[in-house]
Design goal:
Layout (H helix, E strand, L loop, with lengths): L1 E5 L2 E3 L5 E8 L5 E9 L6 E7 L4 E3 L7 E6 L4 E6 L8 E11 L2 E6 L3 E5 L2
Parallel strand pairs: 2-11
Antiparallel strand pairs: 1-3, 3-8, 4-5, 4-9, 5-6, 7-8, 9-10, 9-11
Length: 118
């Protein structure tokens, strides 16, 4: 599985941004897809996840502001971010958890930088 994230950039506080993550390869094996982020000097944290059944989960810090979704026809994962805050500034990574021949694998995209600043 290969993941290509895009959509990062500079946005003002209170603004919106949509991240995308295109998946290629053995996409049929993907179970759950996630967005993580890592701010400067911080540990990587899970932001949102979505299972192949569409069940979503969010970090408390983004609930009500971020929406994760996946378009299976386009093999693409999205993260719609709104009401952005300075503390949302981070490199955002997409992640796929896949089951292949009874073994679980983690795949990562290259990361896309989101900067929230006026």
């Amino acid at each position: 599985v290969q993941l290509q994230a895009s959509g990062g950039g500079l946005v003002q506080p209170g603004g919106s941004l949509r991240l995308s993550c295109a998946a290629t390869g053995s996409i049929f094996s993907i179970n759950t897809m996630n967005w993580y982020r890592q701010g400067t000097g911080k540990e990587r944290e899970l932001v949102a996840s979505i299972t192949n059944r569409g069940i979503t989960n969010y970090a408390d810090s983004v609930k009500g502001r971020f929406t994760i979704s996946r378009d299976n026809a386009k093999n693409t994962l999205y993260l719609q971010m709104s009401s952005l805050k300075h503390e949302d500034t981070a490199v955002y990574y997409c992640n796929a958890v896949a089951l292949q021949k009874s073994i679980w694998y983690n795949y990562w995209g290259q990361g896309t930088l989101v900067t929230v600043s006026s």
